[in-house]
Design a protein that fits this description.
There is one protein chain. Helices cover 45% and strands 12% of the residues. By secondary structure, the protein is an alpha/beta fold. It has 2 domains: 273 residues, Aldolase class I (TIM Barrel), CATH 3.20.20.70; 99 residues, no CATH class. Strands 1-2-3-4-5-6-7-8 form an 8-stranded parallel barrel, surrounded by 7 helices. A two-stranded parallel sheet has the order 9-10. Helix 7 links the parallel strand 6 and strand 7. Helix 3 runs parallel beside helix 5 and helix 11 crosses helix 13. The longest helix has 18 residues. The radius of gyration is 26 Å and the shape is elongated.
């Protein structure tokens, strides 16, 4: 069959779709918590405001719709940064809905209201309170106290002109009776969003479906037009799939952070949410800045990206295995980047601003070596290639470029001796 005559859709049989109806999603948006929940990780650096500004600009370029700019009640520096970010988003007319977080405490809502007044743009107040029995027991809270503080904070925020999202921490371990009372009270006093939280990463996909369905029932009972947010953590390694299930179940907004940074093992990685939504055809947007976004957040916060981290890690599109590399190289020799990006990868590197990399190591074949030399415009010599491959076979790791150049120098030195 001639090149170009292949129906590319038939080159990959997609069992993800076989026998299933197309996945259905309603209208939704993505909410980035990198500069709030992400900074609550005990290992990160709270970056200077200049770095935060660049991060929100990249969010806008990626089409992320909303951003939590921080906890203005946390102290003078936190308040100053939150205000600076809100003003920058206003001045640059960035297409980002702006939110700030605080406890269901009047003083916290007052700080958010002050930011809104000084920035001159709407700020959504994410007002949070723990709702699970275990949290109530540890804190010594009664339901009556929780209702009282929630109502006071929401009522104050609404009088100050703030839109309110009511956030029940540890929702996924809370009783339906408690949640119903808290949700209905919040809605009655002006909350326009309810944030369902998997604060300790407890939920499974079945739990997500059940909780979103329950929340929709309570909203229907209230008769109000209220949106549902999903906020997940990754303690059981389920944050990504839970976020996608929450969307299918009817959540209106999904929270996440760059590289999943956050408390303990972190939050839903918003970058992986974006990748999966694009690959599933749910969104169609330019994500070539996604790698830059994650790396910018990682550098600013002092987080090291693991080599095997999806899309962004150094090894995401890198191979030194002979069989794998040979298939990629054959595709490249046909000048078919589409094929090279997919023959050994489920994520097409080129769509996200990256490319396939072929290295040389103990499991490599001669094609790896030849390709490495060609890419660096080094003369391709069979004896040189064998010398490099023998060096790789004797090594316990993939050779660096410096290792290979050293082998080339040794070979040429011996040849002229």
């Amino acid at each position: 069959m001639e090149r170009g005559a292949v129906d590319r859709e038939n080159l990959i049989h997609d069992w993800n779709r076989s026998g299933n109806a197309p996945r259905k999603f309603g209208n939704f948006d993505l909410f980035d918590e990198s500069l709030r929940d992400g900074l609550q990780s005990p290992s990160v650096i709270d970056p200077p405001v200049e770095d935060k500004i660049r991060i929100v600009e990249l969010m806008a370029e990626l089409g992320i719709e909303a951003v939590d700019v921080g906890l203005p009640c946390a102290g003078p520096r936190a308040f100053s940064d939150v205000l600076a970010l809100a003003r920058h988003i206003r001045d640059r007319k960035l297409p980002l809905s702006v939110a700030a977080a605080g406890r269901t405490v009047v003083g916290d809502m007052q700080a958010i209201a002050e930011v809104q007044q000084k920035a001159g743009i709407p700020i959504i107040a994410y007002a949070f309170i723990g709702s699970s029995p275990i949290r109530q027991y540890a804190e010594g809270w009664t339901l009556e106290r929780m209702l009282k503080t929630s109502i006071e904070a929401i009522s104050f925020a609404r009088k100050e002109g703030l839109e309110v999202c009511y956030v029940t921490e540890d929702t996924t371990r809370s009783s339906p009776e408690t949640l119903r009372q808290l949700f209905l009270a919040a809605i009655e006093h002006g909350a326009s969003r309810l944030c369902v939280c998997d604060t300790v990463g407890h939920a499974t996909p079945d739990g997500v479906r059940a909780l979103i369905a329950f929340t929709k029932e309570v909203i229907a009972e209230s008769g109000a037009d209220v949106k549902i947010d999903w906020h997940g953590h990754n303690d059981r390694g389920l944050a990504l799939i839970n976020a996608l299930v929450a969307l299918e179940a009817g959540a209106d907004r999904i929270h996440g952070t760059a590289a999943g940074i956050g408390e303990r093992v972190g939050n839903t990685p918003i970058d992986q949410v974006l990748v999966n939504l694009k690959l599933d055809g749910v969104i169609d947007r330019d994500l070539t800045k996604l790698v830059e976004f994650v790396r910018t957040v990682a550098k600013a916060t002092g987080v090291e990206i693991p080599a095997n981290y999806p899309l962004v890690g150094d090894d995401a599109f890198r191979t030194a295995t002979g069989v794998h590399a040979a298939a990629i190289i054959k595709a490249k020799r046909r000048n078919d980047d589409w094929l090279a990006d997919r023959v050994y990868s489920a994520v097409p590197a080129g769509e996200f601003g990256k490319s396939q990399t072929i290295d040389v190591g103990p499991m490599s074949g001669m094609s790896n070596v030849i390709y490495w030399l060609e890419q660096r415009k080094e003369p391709v010599d069979e004896e040189l290639g064998r010398f490099i491959l023998d060096r790789a076979k004797a090594s316990n790791r993939t050779l660096s470029d410096a290792d290979i150049y050293q082998a080339i120098a040794e070979f040429r030195s011996r040849a002229t001796a």
